[in-house]
Design goal:
Blueprint lengths: L1 H11 L2 E8 L4 E4 L2 E5 L2 E6 L2 E9 L2 E10 L4 E7 L4 E9 L4 E4 L2 E2 L6 E6 L1 E8 L6 E7 L4 E7 L5 E9 L4 E3 L11 E4 L1 E8 L6 E7 L3 E7 L4 E9 L4 E7 L6 E5 L4 E4 L1 E8 L6 E7 L4 E6 L10 E2 L12 E4 L2 E5 L12 E5 L3 E4 L5 H11 L21 H15 L3 E3 L2 H9 L15 H4 L5 H6 L36 E7 L22 E4 L15 E4 L6 E3 L1 E3 L2
Parallel strand pairs: 1-7, 8-14, 15-20, 21-27, 34-37
Antiparallel strand pairs: 1-4, 2-3, 2-5, 5-6, 8-11, 9-10, 9-12, 12-13, 15-17, 16-18, 18-19, 21-24, 22-23, 22-25, 25-26, 28-29, 29-32, 30-31, 32-38, 33-38, 34-35, 35-36
Length: 553
């Protein structure tokens, strides 16, 4: 029997093929005929050369020739690779946007794209049509077609009118940005209206199939402010800007006061103490700040000069004491009224002289600032002039950078305080106009001889025009040329009166500044223009206009 079996195998023996694949359930064809699907085990076939094809719905077909001998057993594992197919995309109506697997195409329907074979998620949408989703299997090396119906999605236009204007309008549940007349699906939607400093409103609004107008008025949001100070008699001022009018409001602090939400500045002042400042954003939950004012141990009348970083020294400065005075002139023009008592609670320093040519030149050279051609730079001890207000401001900023101390222009209140030097008369030396030429370089008889027809005082101050700084006497605070020689730019705009003016020496405020104030008069001024209370304003520079600086201690 063994002999017969061996002989039969030699004559009739066959080969076998076992086949597995990734993925499974692939169709197997041998020489074009279906042999089964994977896994295929011990499939008998005649020895020789055969064509093997392995197919799957959306994978590239595996195709190769295999050679098998008598009695041979072949075991194969085949990993199929994804192929590519073509997808034709259509919609009714045409012009829809298309997303494939979450990525938006640049083309709209109709369009044709090539994709990796397999399953894909398709989304189509069109303005005011309902978005449609579909799943499609793309076969390898075949063209597939997808045609979707986009049904009408009714919309209405929405415009939101807000008070205050400029509020932010959002649709938290929709992926669209607001613009007046924006188209939104019919139905109820959440609309959020907000603006800094106001209470946010969220409204459930029903959009109808037409033009929809929604009016929303936001309420001002408020928070409580608590200021704890030492010493107890400290005066505290609160400043904020009204959002509606952009007007600056300055209020005396009262415990736990209620203020509009927004940027708030608190200033605490006490005689002989260093003022403290706080700037913060007051929220609906309120704000608490503690301020402990340190004593200032400085002596009024002390002179000093700060060293400059680039070499040399700043202008000579002198410390003036704190104090109170009545600002304005009851007999003066409307711009000098109403009278009010101003209290400067801490000492500060002021330049002894008006800023000179020698003081100003290092700033001009370092910053490339142009000097007016009428300025003789060899007259180093003459006051600098032919300057606009912004030129004076630039010099104070430069001084601050060079010295590390805070320099600035004086406020009107500070200027009048140091000009009066403790007096309440027209001039720091009294009301006797016969003494004018003893103290002030103004339009005198010498000026009248040079400029015929000018109105001048009946005395001689020794100068027909400009004088070197310090040529005449100083006032009780040790300041020279506070009247006459050149008029002096101060910090503020040229407000028409003192209505609403601060009582702590803070600058007056005005929206849309059309000019800045200069004080003290000049060498060509009349007696009325050099009074302590006199004030004028301008937009431009002039040969009789300079400035003086102050430094915070």
């Amino acid at each position: 029997m063994l002999v017969f079996g061996f002989a039969g195998y030699q004559i009739y023996g066959t080969a076998t093929l076992s086949l597995t694949s990734e993925p499974e359930q692939a169709l197997v064809r041998l020489d074009g005929s279906l042999a089964g699907d994977t896994p295929l085990e011990d499939f008998a076939l005649a020895p020789g050369i055969h064509r093997l094809e392995v197919e799957h719905s959306h994978f590239a077909t595996f195709d190769e020739q295999i050679t098998i001998g008598f009695g041979e057993r072949i075991q194969r594992h085949i990993v199929l690779e994804l192929g590519t197919g073509t997808l034709s995309l259509l919609s009714r109506p045409l012009g829809a946007w298309v997303e494939v697997d979450g990525e938006r195409l640049t083309n709209r329907t109709p369009t044709r794209i090539t994709l990796v074979s397999g399953t894909h998620e398709i989304r189509m949408g069109l303005l005011e049509r309902r978005t449609v989703e579909a799943t499609i299997v793309v076969s390898d090396d075949k063209t597939n077609e997808l045609n979707l119906d986009l049904n009408i999605d009714p919309h209405g236009s929405v415009t939101v009118a807000t008070k205050p204007p400029g509020s932010t309008i959002e649709f938290p549940e929709l992926t669209l940005a607001y613009a007046p007349g924006v188209r939104i699906p019919i139905g109820e939607h959440l609309i959020r209206v907000s603006k800094a400093g106001y209470v946010t409103q969220e409204i459930r609004y029903t959009v109808r199939y037409r033009d929809n107008l929604l009016n929303v008025e936001l309420l001002r949001d408020y928070g409580h402010l608590r200021v704890i100070v030492n010493p107890a008699d400290t005066k505290v001022q609160v400043t904020y800007v009204e959002l509606e009018s952009e007007r600056v409001r300055r209020l005396a602090y009262v415990p736990n006061m209620r203020l509009p939400v927004g940027r708030v500045e608190v200033v605490a002042r006490a005689i002989g103490r260093r003022s403290e400042y706080r700037s913060f954003y007051l929220t609906h939950s309120g704000y608490t700040t503690r301020m402990n004012l340190e004593s200032m141990n400085v002596e009024a009348g002390t002179r000093f000069r700060d060293s400059l970083q680039d070499g040399g020294e700043g202008p000579p400065m002198i410390i003036v004491p704190p104090g109170s005075f009545v600002m304005g002139d009851a007999a003066g023009s409307i711009s000098e009224k109403p009278l009010r008592t101003v209290t400067l609670t801490q000492p500060f320093s002021v330049s002894v002289f008006e800023v000179t040519v020698a003081d100003y030149l290092p700033f001009a050279v370092s910053g490339g600032v142009e000097i007016h051609p009428r300025i003789d730079t060899t007259e180093a001890n003459h006051p600098m002039r032919h300057l606009e207000w912004r030129d004076a401001l630039g010099y104070t900023n430069w001084l601050s950078e060079q010295t590390g101390n805070k320099y600035r222009l004086l406020t009107e209140a500070e200027w009048e305080y140091v000009a009066r030097a403790g007096t309440r008369t027209q001039y720091y030396f009294g009301d006797d106009t016969s003494l004018l030429c003893d103290h002030i370089n103004l339009a005198d008889l010498a000026t009248g001889r040079r400029y015929r027809g000018w109105q001048v005082v009946d005395c001689e101050d020794g100068y027909a025009g400009l004088a070197p700084v310090g040529s005449l006497g100083a006032n009780a605070f040790g300041l020279y040329d506070i009247y006459g020689n050149v008029a002096e730019w101060v910090m503020e705009c040229g407000m028409p009166s003192y209505v609403g003016g601060a009582t702590d020496g803070s600058p007056l405020f005005e929206q849309g500044c059309e000019g800045h104030v200069f004080r003290g008069g000049s060498w060509d001024s009349k007696p009325d223009e050099v009074r302590s209370a006199a004030r004028r304003s301008s937009l431009i520079s002039n040969g009789d206009r300079g400035f003086r600086v102050m430094r915070e201690l």
